[in-house]
């Protein structure tokens, strides 16, 4: 297809060139060519060119130079348009990336502070008076239990002491009971003695009358003692019963085995130690996470600083663009100063086509390819869209980007 | 609970074995009353003692009190297993000389 396009072009050129150059074939005088106008270059009148003679071969070389440089200038024009566009893409993408990275850094920082709070919360417990660390709580619990055990031992000791005292009291009561028994026995004998005395006083007659009165008094005293002893016995029985009841109650208290309660302290202590250790482990893990989150934040911040390569890239592209501009301008100046009139017809456009093909093969991306066609058109070189035009476009949308 | 007593001069060694609970209070009272016999030291060998309850701990404390009144030094020897644990939880090491 391209070949066809260029053949057509070549014919057009032939026509244009033949109108002037064929007639002046015999006298090769350099003229400012009107037919170079279609090459998108202003026709300037060079007085020096008018004067200097040029041979045919030289004219052919100049023609070839003019034809060949034109598509190169178009290629430079494509680059001059695309390079700032590239710089713009990089700048926009970098700004977008910067913003996202900053969001990430802020997120990581927020995460770190949340975890820090969790660590603080986990290390203490809220109670009525305020906050208390787990270790303090463990110590407090242990101290409380120690106090409880101390009290258990104190109660146990006191109860046993009472048991021993009541045992002594019971023994004393038994002694008192036996004493009372002896009193009753003695009293019985006294009573018997007074009876004997009464009998003996009767036998003595008048002389024993006073003695009988004494004997009767002794008998009534003995009766009183017997009554008192009976009463005492009853009271002793009551006291003994009370002491026995007290002993039984105390036995209940003292035999309530607190062994399990005492041993519970060991279990609770072990449990507290394990709990505090677990809490510490938990805290360490969380602190590690805080560190990681902070590292992430730092790395992201460093990345954002690293992203300043974009400035340099923009500068490089700017520099390249101005250099290309200079090259283009210089090339155009050279072309303008090379324009001659009365150039003979030749196949100079053939090499023009070759260069166009080379440039096309360089522009792999369709955006460049199509842009080149436009630029060629602006330069007056008509090209139909080639069949070999690349279909693939530059990846610009997010969907096209594959993540590895 | 059973005990055997071995006295040499003013020092007395008592070997206690079995289980020591509230029901042994009368037997242990005999050991407590040894404090008033003019001895200067008493050593309770607990290596054969299998078990103590809270009442037994109370009785040990009473023995200590009685010893203090009479100027007798008490030593608890070789507590094992549950007895050792009970002594440890009750902080007996701060009250008695335990070896």
Report a brief summary of the structure.
With 404 residues, chain A is mainly α. In chain A, 78% of the residues lie in helices and 2% in strands.
Write the layout of secondary structure elements.
The complex is a heterodimer of chains A (404) and B (99).
Chain A: H1 2-21, H2 47-51, H3 56-123, E1 124-127, E2 130-133, H4 134-204, H5 209-255, H6 259-306, H7 309-338, H8 348-362, H9 366-378
Antiparallel strand pairs in A: 1-2
Helix pairs in contact in A: 1-8, 3-6, 3-7, 3-8, 3-9, 4-5, 4-6
Chain B: E1 2-8, E2 11-20, H1 25-33, E3 41-52, H2 54-70, E4 73-77, H3 81-89, E5 97-98
Parallel strand pairs in B: 2-3, 3-4, 4-5
Antiparallel strand pairs in B: 1-2
Tell me what you see in this structure.
- With 404 residues, chain A is an all-alpha fold.
- In chain A, 78% of the residues lie in helices and 2% in strands.
- Chain A has a two-stranded antiparallel sheet with strand order 1-2.
- The longest helix of chain A is centred in the middle third of the chain and has 71 residues, at 134-204.
- Chain B is an alpha/beta fold.
- Chain B has three helices and five strands, in the order ββαβαβαβ.
- Chain B has a five-stranded mixed beta sheet.
- Chain B is globular.
- The two termini of chain B are 21 Å apart.
- The mean pLDDT of chain B is 93.
- The chains are: A mainly alpha (404), B alpha/beta (99).
- Chains A and B meet through helix 4, helix 5 and helix 6 of A and helix 1, helix 2 and helix 3 of B.
């Amino acid at each position: 297809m391209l070949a066809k396009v260029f053949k057509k072009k070549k014919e057009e050129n032939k026509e244009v060139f033949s109108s002037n150059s064929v007639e002046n074939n015999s006298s090769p005088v350099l003229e400012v060519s009107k037919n170079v106008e279609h090459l998108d270059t202003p026709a300037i009148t060079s007085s020096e060119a008018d004067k200097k003679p040029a041979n045919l071969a030289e004219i052919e070389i100049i023609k070839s130079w003019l034809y060949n440089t034109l598509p190169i200038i178009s290629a430079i024009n494509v680059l001059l348009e695309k390079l700032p566009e590239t710089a713009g893409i990089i700048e926009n993408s970098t700004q977008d990336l910067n913003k996202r990275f900053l969001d990430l850094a802020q997120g990581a920082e927020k995460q770190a502070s949340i975890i820090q709070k969790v660590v603080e919360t986990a290390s203490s417990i809220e109670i009525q008076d305020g906050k208390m660390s787990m270790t303090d709580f463990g110590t407090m619990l242990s101290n409380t239990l120690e106090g409880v055990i101390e009290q258990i031992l104190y109660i146990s000791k006191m109860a046993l002491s009472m048991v021993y005292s009541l045992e002594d009291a019971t023994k004393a009561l038994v002694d008192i009971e036996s004493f009372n028994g002896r009193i009753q026995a003695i009293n019985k004998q006294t009573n018997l003695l007074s009876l004997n005395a009464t009998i003996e006083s009767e036998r003595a007659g008048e002389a024993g009358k006073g003695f009988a009165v004494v004997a009767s008094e002794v008998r009534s005293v003995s009766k009183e003692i017997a009554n008192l002893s009976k009463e005492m016995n009853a009271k002793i029985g009551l006291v003994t019963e009370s002491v026995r009841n007290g002993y039984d109650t105390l036995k209940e208290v003292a035999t309530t085995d607190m062994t399990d309660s005492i041993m519970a302290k060991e279990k609770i202590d072990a449990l507290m130690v394990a709990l505090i250790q677990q809490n510490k482990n938990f805290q360490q893990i969380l602190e590690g996470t805080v560190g990681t989150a902070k590292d992430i934040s730092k790395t992201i911040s460093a990345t954002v600083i690293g992203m300043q390569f974009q400035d340099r890239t923009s500068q490089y592209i700017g520099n390249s663009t101005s250099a290309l501009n200079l090259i283009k301008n210089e090339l155009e100046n050279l072309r303008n100063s090379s324009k001659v009139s009365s150039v003979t017809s030749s196949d100079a456009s053939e090499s023009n086509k070759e260069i166009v093909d080379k440039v096309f093969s360089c522009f792999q991306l369709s955006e460049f390819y199509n842009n080149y066609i436009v630029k060629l058109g602006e330069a007056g070189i008509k090209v139909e869209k080639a069949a070999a035009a690349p279909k693939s476009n530059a990846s610009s949308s997010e969907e096209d980007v594959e993540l590895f | 609970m059973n005990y055997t007593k071995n006295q040499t001069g003013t020092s007395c060694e008592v070997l206690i074995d079995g289980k020591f609970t509230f029901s042994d209070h009368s037997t242990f009272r005999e050991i407590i009353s040894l404090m008033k016999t003019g001895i200067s030291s008493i050593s309770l060998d607990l290596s054969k003692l299998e078990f103590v309850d809270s009442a037994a701990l109370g009785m040990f404390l009473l023995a200590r009190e009685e010893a203090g009144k009479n100027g007798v030094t008490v030593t608890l020897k070789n507590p094992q297993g549950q007895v050792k644990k009970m002594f440890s939880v009750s902080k007996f090491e701060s009250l008695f000389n335990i070896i």
